[in-house]
Amino acid sequence: MRTIEEINKKIKSGKVVVVTAEEVLNIVKTKGVKKTLEEVDVVTTGTFSPMCSSGILLNFFQPKPKIRTGGGTVYLNNVPAYSGLAAADIYLGATALPEDDPRNKVYPGTFKYGGGHVIEDLVNGKDIKLCIFSYGTHCYPRKKYSCPINLKGLNNAILLNPRNSSQNYNVAVNLSDKVVYTYMGVLLPKLGSAHYATAGTFSPLMNDPYYKTIGIGTRIFLGGGIGYIIWHGTQHMPDSSRTEKGIPMGPAGTLATIGDLKQMSSHFLRGVSLKGYGVSLAVGIGIPIPILNKEILSSTLVTNQNIVMPVIDYGESYPNSKEEVLAEVTYAELQSGHIKILGKKIPTCTLSSYAKAREVANTLKNWIKQGRFTLTQPAVTIDRLNNDN
Amino acid sequence: MTIKRKYLLIFPEETIERPITYHLIHDYNLMINILKASVTPGKEGRLVIEVHGDKKALESAKHYLKEIGVNIKPVIEGIHWLKERCVHCTACAPGCPSQCFVVDRKTMLVSFEKERCIVCKHCLSACAYGAIKILENYAD
């Protein structure tokens, strides 16, 4: 039908037709599949949600005399970073906490500042206090070093996320008679609230549910800048059960991503404090789906009504690994503000942002339209990643 | 002229046992809606009330409260919604007893209807993005 090279030619000549994952639904409704397939070149997706498996890889310029971070300890604004790498490379994870944070000692903890917030501060151009304690070697004699660093002054600052953009997720409820504090939010007792995640029709992996266009080297929108997919994410479960339309009915695919932090913006990269749980980083991700053929177009026609999500009790079942599915509800029902579980009408909410997901998809659409963003041919698509050929 | 106002009353230890709300209703003919109350044993008590009544009677009632040592502070603003920090996730909405956080189901954008707020502070726990702040005179 069409190739990525052809789409890129159209991007360069300004003739490309790009629509968001939401807009394509209306276009198909009015014009039909055949006409839409002829006209639309790219469908843009988007998501914005806390994604705990995120972090930054930094390389700073050596002081005089030099210091070696490897084997030592490193802090950024008091938040410990991983130092088991070469002399000036450090990795800061989104969920890292200062050693003196009281955590959940006084329950529930508030977790005001951690890795995710350091990342947000860096992106905002703020100075961050770097502290290094090392043991000293002949070539790296310094044992202590402390200085303010900022994004501009770093040699490299790379967002490197092992698990992002979950394809589908659980809906968390609480059957117990106490408030529970989870990564899905503050769950009110006795089915007081239902907490869902992902971006429904905008979700990147919902628009390519079998990962046929997405792969290693796919250029994406990441945190307000340009990034790439480097592998499937950790806990990638492509074989989870699916609906007739290929939509997974629970957690399934994930993606590992990378991008230059220096391009990113705190509008799409935000530190998160989850009461009683910890800190994280909310990440905005958008993936362009090239409409190479009818099958791919069909997969982008996923609606909020098509997406089914399992409702799990996080009061008792989830923590004890007895994840019994209480009910299955659609994303559309969740988004209406209420669902009915075990005969009770429950208000719903999410820590993901549908409005931001829409903004990501629209931003990516505009980048492509303006010729600022071309599509890449992945080296290997995710569906073929574990094949030997 | 009748008016409606919200106040934070801070009771020193020696006033805690006095039936002050009764006096406000009985002696000054004020309608009192208690929005929040907390008493710390051996310390102070805090009461957030909405008062509805005659403007002059309200002034006299305030005078009475000051005389007996109750610290009365107007609730001009309680919970602050920091629009620029809000990502419109909706986590604040379900637990809010007075439905201050309104979600436009079409745009999925959140807005805050401040006048409904009773300062229960649920949203402070629910918001993970630091988009809710509270004024100092409300802190426990």
Can you walk through the features of this model?
The complex is a heterodimer of chains A (389) and B (140). With 389 residues, chain A is α+β, with helices and mostly antiparallel strands. Chain A folds into two domains: 4-51 and 160-384, no CATH class; 61-152, no CATH class. Helices cover 16% and strands 31% of the residues of chain A. Chain A is built from six helices and 24 strands. Chain A has helices spanning 4-13, 23-39, 115-123, 294-299, 331-335, 354-369, and strands at 18-20, 42-44, 47-50, 55-59, 73-76, 79-81, 89-93, 128-133, 144-149, 156-164, 171-173, 180-182, 185-187, 194-196, 219-222, 225-232, 255-260, 269-274, 278-286, 288-290, 308-313, 325-330, 338-341, 344-350. In chain A, strands 3, 4, 7, 10, 15, 16, 17, 18 and 19 form a nine-stranded antiparallel sheet that branches. A four-stranded antiparallel sheet of chain A has the order 6-5-8-9. The longest helix of chain A has 17 residues, at 23-39. Chain A is globular and about 70 Å long. The model of chain A has no long low-confidence stretch (mean pLDDT 97). In chain B, a hairpin with a 5-residue loop joins strand 2 (31-39) and strand 3. Chain B is elongated, with a radius of gyration of 17 Å. Chain B has helices at residues 20-28, 55-67, 122-126; strands spanning 2-11, 31-39, 45-54, 71-74, 79-81, 101-104, 109-112, 132-134. The longest helix of chain B has 13 residues, at 55-67. Chain B has two domains: 2-74, ACT domain (Alpha-Beta Plaits, 2-Layer Sandwich); 79-138, 2-Layer Sandwich (Alpha-Beta Plaits). Helices cover 19% and strands 34% of the residues of chain B. With 140 residues, chain B is an alpha+beta fold. Chain B contains three helices and eight strands, in the order E-H-E-E-H-E-E-E-E-H-E. Chain A binds chain B through residues 48, 50, 108, 185-186, 188, 192-193, 195, 270-275, 280, 282, 335-337, 346-356, 358, and chain B through 87-95, 103, 105, 107-109, 122, 125-126, 128-130.
